[in-house]
Amino acid sequence: MLEQTTREQIVRAADGLFYRHGYEHTSFADIAAAVAISRGNFYHHFKTKDAILDAVISVRLAQTREMLDRWELDGTTPEARIRSFIDILIANRADIKRYGCPVGTLCSELAKLGHPSRPEANRLFTLFRVWLARQLTLLGCGGDADPLAMHLLAMSQGVATLASAFKDDAFIAAEVERIHLWLTHQLKPRRRR
Amino acid sequence: MLEQTTREQIVRAADGLFYRHGYEHTSFADIAAAVAISRGNFYHHFKTKDAILDAVISVRLAQTREMLDRWELDGTTPEARIRSFIDILIANRADIKRYGCPVGTLCSELAKLGHPSRPEANRLFTLFRVWLARQLTLLGCGGDADPLAMHLLAMSQGVATLASAFKDDAFIAAEVERIHLWLTHQLKPRRRR
DNA sequence: GACCGACTAGGACAACTGTCCTAATCGTCG
DNA sequence: CGACGATTAGGACAGTTGTCCTAGTCGGTC
């Protein structure tokens, strides 16, 4: 952890810059400056800008899988795990207010650029989608699990977009509470049947 | 309508390109090529790229006001007007699947660029926000009108983001139905009190 | 000590960016 | 007709972009 290879440093710096400034608005020079290496050295590790993007996406995919696994272990019930997902809006609210959701904004940008790595970025969404659907299936949602997972994803994306536009903490808190309530209402009737 | 000034043509072309390819990814050359004029002529109408963006935003603001006014006239009840808003997700689904919401994606991009016109772009959101809040107030939502308006905006933004990522018509239809249902449930208890 | 691959620095390269200038053309009005 | 402002074309300009090359340094292996 203390010692990082140059390649890891590059990916980490690019990850942050892509999130904060966007993929296209981040140049080779920006990343090289952030890591304090020369552009020549840079080229030795990554031949093209797209290659860096691919590396960043694959790191994000790995980190997301880790996070979902952690929630799987820490949450005693599927319901608690889903609530972990909902609460990232609170935990990351400072960054979300400034730069939006890292997944949503990246996918949106790559869509507009018509970038070949777009499908790879979308897998970040799919990761959350199937994980949420699995938790919902465990709760007995059956065939509705996937639509409900998509609905949860959509709500969190919407909150992130508006939180970034209006920079409103109270709005985030209110929406998160609303989503928690929605989940409660969604589950209660199923238990009684 | 048949005869357009060069300036209007430029703004219209820039509007479309900013939506489809993003602001930063659209160059002077792209816009000039779309209107089939020289870059020199271009400069005669707009001194800077930011000036074009400002013109595009102000046109979008005007068009949005027009649309809201039309809904105001066409919708016999506040409820019907709100449902007009919800249904734009259906009406514009083809573009939304490809490029996302014109308002949300522009605001997100300008946020990452730290662009000075960001507040102006956010006014697009505010237009919808206060309009929805007014309709909800008319329905007797009182102090909850603004939070409910924000919730409606958030849901539509979330649907647009995921629709663009997954390109799924059925998802859009299901979410729109869900939002309509939410509105119904939101209003019924208030009428009885 | 000789050697070799991994790593690094610095800069070259053409293409493109937004910006700006100059000269020519156009339609309109006196 | 002559004059004038609005419009247009074409290109110059410096700066930046992603890409690539060459030369040098370093650490470890025969």
Structural class of chain A: mainly alpha
For the secondary structure, the number of strands of chain A is 0
Strand portion of chain A, in percent? under 5%
Residue-averaged pLDDT of chain A, rounded?
Answer: 93
What is the alpha-carbon Rg of chain A in Å? 19 Å
**Helical content of chain A (DSSP H or I, runs of 4+):** over 70%
What this model shows, in words?
The structure is a homodimer of 193-residue chains. The mean pLDDT of chain A is 93. The longest helix of chain A is centred in the N-terminal third of the chain and has 26 residues. The radius of gyration of chain A is 19 Å and the shape is elongated. Chain A is mainly alpha-helical. Chain A contains 10 helices and no strands. In chain A, α7 packs antiparallel against α8. The first copy, chain A, starts with 5 loop residues before the first helix and ends with a helix. Chains A and B meet through α7, α9 and α10 of A and α7, α9 and α10 of B. The structure holds a DNA duplex (30 and 30 nucleotides).
Keywords:
homodimer; 193 residues; mainly alpha; 10 helices; 0% strand; elongated; DNA-binding
Tell me briefly what this model is:
The structure is a homodimer of 193-residue chains. With 193 residues, chain A is mainly alpha-helical. Chain A is built from 10 helices and no strands.
Write the layout of secondary structure elements.
Two copies of one chain form a homodimer.
Chain A: H1 6-21, H2 28-35, H3 39-45, H4 49-74, H5 78-91, H6 93-99, H7 102-113, H8 118-138, H9 145-166, H10 169-192
Helix pairs in contact in A: 1-2, 1-4, 4-8, 5-8, 5-10, 6-9, 7-8, 8-9, 9-10
Chain A binds a DNA duplex (30 and 30 nucleotides) through residues 6, 27-29, 37-41, 43-45, 47-49.
